[in-house]
Every structure is written in C-alpha cells, then in structure tokens.
Specification:
The chain has about 375 residues and is an alpha/beta fold. It is built from 13 helices and 17 strands. The chain has helices at about 75-80, 85-90, 105-110, 125-130, 175-190, 210-220, 230-235, 265-270, 270-290, 290-305, 310-320, 330-345, 360-365, and strands at about 1-5, 15-20, 40, 50, 65-70, 95-100, 120, 140-145, 150-155, 170, 205, 225, 240-245, 255-260, 320-325, 355, 380. The strands form 4 sheets. It has an 8-stranded mixed beta sheet with strand order 1-2-6-5-7-14-8-15. A 5-stranded mixed beta sheet has the order 11-10-12-9-13, with helices on both faces. Helix 5 packs across helix 12 (about 330-345), helix 7 crosses helix 11 and helix 9 packs across helix 13. The protein is globular and about 60 Å long. The model is unreliable at about 1-50 (pLDDT under 50).
C-alpha cells in the first residue's frame, strides 16, 4: 500500500512520496529487507515539484524515481539526496522523485512494477529479487554501507551470549538481512529454530523497527538483532549491546546497504545512472570528510521522514557504527546468500551476473579512487 504525502509536505523539506511496506512477510523463497533518501523542491504553491539544482536534463529525462529507507544504514541516500545535495547536483535538471520504504519486499515490488528506477536496499532483498526474477529485473551497481547492526538485550535477563537461549529476540522481518544473520548465528550456536514460525530454542519475534523500542519497554521482547538507529534507541532505554555483528565478519566489514537499478532503466538511461553513482561516490567522500556535519544532515532527513530527530544519545553511537562505502563487498553478499540457504529461507541461488559495476568503476577511476570487484558475480 502506498501513501502519497505530497499534499501534506513537512516544511522546509521537499515533497515526498512514501510507500509503506506490507506487514505480512512474503513466501519463504522471497523473504527480504530493504534500503534509504529524498527529493525535490516545492514551488511557492507547494504543489509542483521542480529540480533542486536546475540545469540541463540528463538524457532528456524529466525525473528519476529513487527508493530508500529512513535508516542510518542508508546514510548515503539521506545525505546525498537532500536539496542541493551531491546526487541532485549531478542530475542537474532531472528531478529526483523520492520513495521511502519500510521493508525490502515493497521496494522490490516497486522496482518490478517500474514504480522506482534506482534504490538503496539491503542484500537479502537484492538476492531474493534477483533470484525470483531469474536474474532479469535488477542489478546491484554499487555499495553504500557496512556495519551498523547489533544484538542488544535486556541486561537483567541476558548477561551472556548463552543466555539468549530461551529468550524472545526481535528481528525486523522474516527473511530480512538481520533475520537471516540472527538465524545463522543461532544455528552456529547449535540451537534449533523453525525459520518460518520463529519458534524453537530462541523465540525469533519479527517486529517492525518502529515498534521494537516500545516492544522492549513493555517487556514483550528480551532483546533485538537490529540495524541502527534502532539498536541505539534500545540502548537509550536501558538495553546493552551484547554483540556487534561486524565482529563476525572478516575485517569487520559486511554489506548492509547497496544500490540497485532496474535493468531496463540501466540500458535505456546509463548517463542518469552514472550521474546518480557519481553523486553517491561524492556523498560518501563528503560523509567521511565531514562526519559531524553529515550526521546532522542525516538526522534532519530522518526528522523530515519520521517527524522526530534522534537525540544525541542515540544518533552519536549509531553513527559511529556505520561505515559508508562505494565497495559493494560482493564476497559478503555471497556469504549472506549461503546463510539464507542454510536457514531454509532460500534455495541455493545462482548469483552470477547480479552485479554490474561498470559505471561505478568508471566513476571511481575518474575520481582517482581504486576500482572495486564483483567477486566473480558480475561485470567488474
């Protein structure tokens, strides 16, 4: 279901269109998660969207429809898609039309329906969307973020990792990126959980990130395996970080957000896609060079989308746990797919061709940065 907010814009930010995720999980093979951004200026009447940067339209295209999540793990979109931000500057007179999602399946559905052209999204929905469409609907064209996922718990009930057994732990959605990671961690502990129902040695409670803090305060969950800023929101409510997922990965890096595109849009409008990627690379460089300023801009974007800015005790630790990256960390995506297979959420997929990093590497070369690898899963 979608809710059009264009008639009720929140000044002084731009008009936005919001897609709300379906609450129910999709069937087993296609369970997933999602991604993050915003859009264009209003004129004086508040009804007509116009490009923020002005200038010549790329490929003569009036607008590009971009999806993302209002999560800090989508910092590139939150910062880069703002009015006058690097992505809009690169697009010139081509307007950004933004769509904000709460879950990956909705964003994949929107991509399949041509409702969006490009999206920031998590690895699990990218994998599932690619597999479901037999490799014909999307390509991953860039990385965006690593890290920013933690297991946080009620310290009165859970003091050690072994204490998680028998407890109720929330994840954002059946088959989403954090859900898969938690189920894999449970399996490695030697515990048994039915992936579909979440019942077993640990009760896996699928809970929307927006609801998780209230669920924790009410005592209906004992902890959560969640992305930022939800993890830090729970800590602010008295929870304790028991495990940072990054410690489970080589070099403490794993893909949490990447950028996808409709294959037909990539073929028809490569210059537009290249402009978005150029803006994304410049945004990531800006975030690294100006972390405090970028944090404030990301928080302003979250306030515009949710109606409330994050307090310092939440955003400060959350921001530190996230690394923006142009590298899609392709080898970790393959590992995440293996985890989903092991959990019974996915049949063994053929991911060869899921990446097309041609334009990203062109942009990186032009910016004097090292190119990145698709780890044998696409165009280098």
């Amino acid at each position: 279901m979608s809710v059009d907010r264009t008639t009720h814009p929140r000044p002084p930010f731009r008009r936005r269109t919001r897609l709300l995720a379906a609450a129910a999980a999709l069937p087993l093979l296609i369970g997933a998660l999602g991604a993050c951004g915003y859009g264009s200026k209003k004129d004086d009447t508040g009804t007509k969207a116009v490009p923020a940067a002005g200038g010549k339209k790329i490929d003569g295209l009036d607008q590009v429809k971009i999806g993302y999540f209002a999560n800090l793990t989508h910092a590139t979109a939150l910062v880069g898609l703002r009015d006058g931000g690097p992505i809009q500057k690169e697009l010139g007179g081509t307007e950004i039309k933004p769509y904000v999602f709460n879950a990956g399946p909705s964003e994949i559905e929107a991509l399949n329906a041509n409702s969006i052209d490009i999206g920031w999204i998590g690895p699990s929905p990218s994998i599932n969307g690619y597999v479901k469409a037999h490799g014909k609907n999307l390509k991953i064209i860039s990385g965006s973020a690593s890290g920013g996922v933690k297991l946080v718990v009620n310290p009165k009930k859970i003091k050690t990792l072994d204490d998680v057994k028998g407890k109720k732990i929330a994840t954002p959605q059946l088959g989403n990126t954090q859900d898969v990671a938690f189920l894999n961690w449970i399996a490695e502990k030697g515990w048994k959980v039915d992936a579909q129902s979440g019942k077993g040695d640990v009760s896996v409670v699928r809970t929307d990130n927006k609801v998780t803090p209230d669920a924790y305060k009410s005592g209906s969950i004992d902890g959560a395996w969640v992305p930022e800023p939800t993890a830090s929101k729970l800590v602010a409510e008295g929870a304790k970080v028991l495990l940072d997922e990054s410690t489970l990965w080589p070099d403490k890096k794993f893909v949490i957000t990447n950028v996808i595109v409709r294959q037909d849009f990539l073929k028809e409008h490569p210059d537009v896609v290249e402009a978005v990627l150029r803006g994304s690379v410049k945004t990531n460089a800006y975030i690294k060079a100006n972390p405090d300023k970028a944090k404030a801009e990301a928080n302003a974007a979250l306030e515009a989308e949710t109606g409330k800015a994050l307090p310092a005790e939440v955003i400060d630790p959350a921001w530190k746990g996230i690394q923006v990256t142009d590298d899609p960390l392709a080898s970790t995506l393959n590992t995440e797919a293996e985890h989903a297979v092991k959990a019974g959420l996915l049949e063994k997929p053929d991911l060869k061709g899921i990446y097309d990093l041609t334009l990203l590497n062109k942009v990186l070369k032009a910016e004097g940065k090292p190119t990145v690898s698709a780890a044998g899963l696409g165009t280098q």
